[in-house]
Amino acid sequence: MKKQFFEDMKQKGYDAATSEEAYNTLITLINRELCLGDGRCVLQDIGTFRRVLVPGQNRKNPRNPEDIRFHPAHFRVRFRASKSLLKVMPAPNE
What we know:
By secondary structure, the protein is α+β, with helices and mostly antiparallel strands. The protein is built from three helices and five strands, in the order H-H-E-E-E-E-E-H. It folds into two domains: about 1-35, no CATH class; about 40-90, IHF-like DNA-binding proteins (HU Protein, Chain A), CATH 4.10.520. The chain has helices at about 1-10, 15-35, 85-90; strands at about 40-45, 45-55, 55-60, 65-70, 75-80.
C-alpha cells in the first residue's frame, strides 16, 4: 500500500519528500491516537481504528496440574470500515 500511495502522489504532482512526509504524518497520527489518546482514531469516509484489550490466557500443563501463562494480556487493533467506504467497495465474487 505504501508503494501505491507514493505512485498516486507522484501522479498528482507531489515529489517524493512531500509524499513521505504526508504518509509518515498519517501513520504517526493513527499511532498517537491509538496509544496515547482514547484508543480510537476516526478517519472520515474511511473508517475507525480501535484499540482492544485481549486478556491473558492460562492453560493447564497436561503432565501435571500446574497452570502455565500461555499468552500475556495485550492490545490488538481493530478496524471498522465506514458506510461510505463499504458502498464503493465491489461485491465479493462467490
